[in-house]
Amino acid sequence: MDRRRFLAGTATIVVLPFASARATPGSMAAAISQVVGDAAVRRGRVTLDVPPLVENGNTVPLVVSVESPMTAVDHVKAIHVFNEKNPQPNIFSARLGPRNGRAVVGTRIKLGDSQTIMAIAETSSGEFWSASADVIVTLAACLEEAS
User: Fold this and answer.
1) What is the overall mean pLDDT for the chain?
2) Domain with 133 in it: what CATH number?
3) pTM for the full model?
4) β-pairing, 41-43 with 128-139?
5) Where are any strands of DSSP class E within 14-139?
């Protein structure tokens, strides 16, 4: 094998994984389906607080809050957050219980591009509630290629 064939084969191996390492709206829907199964996801009860325009996708503030009495009988079991264009469609899942007192989760996330973020709350009664927000990112994070 000569040097050119070796380098061409190596370049193909390196480039192919990067081309597929990006979530899509379809992969986000599939990730949501893995969490909720066949259950209906209703809009409401969830508030997704994320800036609509961010200069830097490396540190985007995000707060998810859910209207819930947080009692032993009626509480939020989990909050799941998804995106449609980062390398992975699942941003995070937080498990909660009645002892949390309030169903609120805040963090900072990375966004690789302008996209839709969706938060889904899973209740103790097996219901799923959601909210979504569109975020415009001027300087993307999660870039797989070096400049």
Assistant:
1) 85
2) 2.60.40.2470
3) 0.80
4) parallel
5) 41-43, 46-49, 53-56, 60-66, 76-83, 90-95, 103-109, 115-123, 128-139
